[in-house]
Design a protein that fits this description.
Structural class: alpha/beta
CATH class of the largest domain: Alpha Beta
Number of domains: 2
CATH superfamily of the largest domain: Bordetella uptake gene, domain 1
Order of helices and strands: HEHEHEHEHEHEHEHEEHHEH
Largest sheet: 8 strands, mixed
Helix content: 40-55%
Oligomer: single chain
Number of helices: 11
Length: 325
């Protein structure tokens, strides 16, 4: 049996640990916080994160410094956060793109389910199917018809193997029943440039970074990947309206920290982000990106990410996608 003295010692350790966590949260942050974006600058998650985190910085009294570390479909940036000290000063701009990595790669330098703790969801935004006007596709049906007429003749871009743009295209391809060849890039900026130039045939990306080029006519929007039409592009039909409800794919974004970060720090940051998401000016600014703010507790966001990985695994199985080394 455990002695009374041992019980008291164990209890004292628990109390001290809890007190240390609370003390850390009370003093944190005392210096700038680095938020690592695992893709090249200008991606959709960056845009929303800047709006939210700029306001959070005002409340915390310390700035968030956004740092882009792209490559390997987001794995390089994610690994940098996974290996960072769990002190609350290195965060990950988490997104749906990262749900695919453990499904599409046999080996990752980190464990997606064990190395992060979810902090907060920012929101979700629709994906949009775009193509260059020079391709001659007036509608999504035109694109599908051309792909079916010459199986494998069309090429689609993505921000990397397993990225959200890759998964959205695979879901569309599988649902509409056609073959096309995948061309992955280092990040969304490079992928989008190939579409604008007309060198590749189609691409899925979050609406925010596509909007200006769609409105200027440099690319054509053929389909919205959300359940409802976007107020920003009211004339563009949804996948369900075109008869492909299974092609619906929305892009989400949020913030995570290394797994062993003190819980009190996680909860404090979640609370601060939740407060900012209620500010009218923040809601107005993100609405311009067609983002639907989605407040969650840290636990809810953590579960959301895990569920997204499971759904991505099901998609990979249905489409026959095989993981790469």
């Amino acid at each position: 049996m455990i002695s009374t003295r041992a019980w008291r010692a164990a209890l004292a350790c628990i109390v001290l640990a809890g007190s240390a966590s609370i003390s850390t949260a009370q003093t944190w942050p005392t210096r700038p916080i680095t938020a690592i974006s695992p893709f090249t600058a200008g991606n959709a998650n960056d845009m929303v994160a800047r709006v939210v985190l700029d306001e959070v910085s005002k409340n915390l009294g310390q700035p968030f410094v956004l740092e882009n570390r792209s490559g390997a479909g987001g794995a390089i940036g994610a690994n940098a956060v996974a290996k960072a000290g769990p002190d609350g000063y290195t965060a990950l701009l988490h997104s749906s793109s990262l749900s695919s990595l453990p499904v599409m790669h046999r080996k990752l330098p980190y464990d997606a389910l064990r190395d992060f703790t979810g902090v907060a969801m920012f929101g979700v935004q629709p994906t949009v199917l775009v193509t260059a006007p020079s391709k001659g596709f007036k509608t999504a049906q035109d694109l599908v018809a051309a792909a079916k007429a010459k199986p494998g003749a069309l090429f689609f871009a993505s921000a990397g193997i397993g990225s959200a743009s890759h998964m959205a295209a695979e879901r569309f391809r599988n649902t509409a029943g056609f073959q096309a060849q995948h061309v992955p890039f280092r990040g969304p900026t490079e992928a989008f440039a190939e579409i604008v130039s007309g060198r590749l045939d189609f691409y899925f990306l979050p609406l925010a970074p596509a909007l200006n080029l769609v409105k200027s006519g440099k690319v054509m929007a053929l389909m919205i990947g959300s359940k409802r039409r976007s107020p920003s592009l009211p004339d563009v039909p949804t996948a369900a309206e075109l008869g492909w409800p299974g092609a619906t794919y929305e892009f989400w974004g949020g913030l995570s920290l290394p797994a062993k970060t003190p819980r009190a720090v996680v909860e404090k940051l979640n609370s601060e982000i939740g407060t900012v998401l209620k500010i009218p000016v923040v809601q107005e600014r993100v609405a311009k990106f067609s983002v639907e703010l989605t407040p969650m507790t840290a636990g809810q966001f953590d579960k959301y990410f895990r569920d997204d990985i499971a759904q991505t695994a099901a998609l990979a199985k249905a489409t026959g996608l095989k993981p790469v080394d």
